[in-house]
Amino acid sequence: MLNLARWKFGVFVIFVLGLPAVLMATGEPRLVELGKLAMILSPGVVGLGLNFGLGDRSQRIRWRWIGLACALTLAIAGGALAVALAAGAADFHSSGAPPATVLQAAGVSALTSVLEELGWAGGGLALALKAFGRQRGVLILGLVWAAWHLVPVVLRVGLFPDLEAGPPGMIVAFVMACLVYRELLTGLRERAHSWLAAAASHAAPNIVLAALVAAGLGGFHRPGAWALFPAPGGLVFPVLALVAILALRRLAGGSDGPGGDARV
């Protein structure tokens, strides 16, 4: 049974990394765009398919924890952004973008974040837990999640221009942030008894940052300021996320934290 679980997780990894990579590597514009779409959809489609859905839903959803998850991740993103602005590593000059453009950026970010977590906090997490257990499963899933983001960076298709332009240290910091943030999202998902906590807590800061960038937030392309990049790829963001993990564990006292029920 364990071998079958690991085989399924291996298939999941091959599809979520391989399919977008093959399409983007062609360099043909339409196939590159199709690769970006496959990147967003493949974790959910493949993860839910191999796991036969979201799995057990017998536990009552804790909606309060979903709201707290949004507030916590907004605080992390806001704190990282505040440090960047205070240090002069980011600036804001109105781009003059119409409200419709700002709303569109926020809406697209919300949709992609939710679709992303449908795979990573839904089927993908379930497959990882069955294959490797809680501790190793979340760690390995975090590494795959980081690699999934880095596929378009390596192929330089313009999906994450800040990472493409950044130095190697920024890539290392990004991987570290993915590991820490995946642990945080998983812990929030466990406390809420639903993948919606991860989806909401992933979408909330992404919506705000996407809207701010569309409205005129910028200044992240200076290589010397990469450590203050106010998102995964900088150093402030993962530190704040790690503080949040430790605080949640201390407050929970281990009763329903990361060692608790992780069914999906």
Radius of gyration: 18 Å
**First-last Cα distance:** 19 Å
Q: Main beta sheet, described? A: 2 strands, antiparallel
Order of helices and strands: HHHEHHHHHEH
Number of strands: 2
Average pLDDT over all residues? 92
How does the overall form come out from the CA principal axes?
globular
What does the model show?
The protein has 264 residues and is mainly alpha-helical. It is 73% helix and 2% strand. The protein has helices at 2-25, 29-50, 63-86, 99-132, 134-155, 161-165, 168-192, 196-215, 236-252; strands spanning 91-92, 217-218. Strands 1-2 form a two-stranded antiparallel sheet. α2 (29-50) packs across α4 (99-132), α3 (63-86) runs antiparallel to α9 (236-252) and α7 packs across α8. The protein starts with a helix and ends in a 12-residue tail after the last helix.
How are the SSEs ordered, and which strands pair?
Elements: H1 2-25, H2 29-50, H3 63-86, E1 91-92, H4 99-132, H5 134-155, H6 161-165, H7 168-192, H8 196-215, E2 217-218, H9 236-252
Antiparallel strand pairs: 1-2
Can you summarize this structure?
With 264 residues, the chain is mainly α. The protein has helices spanning 2-25, 29-50, 63-86, 99-132, 134-155, 161-165, 168-192, 196-215, 236-252; strands at residues 91-92, 217-218.
Defining traits:
disordered C terminus, 9 helices, globular, 264 residues, two-stranded antiparallel ribbon
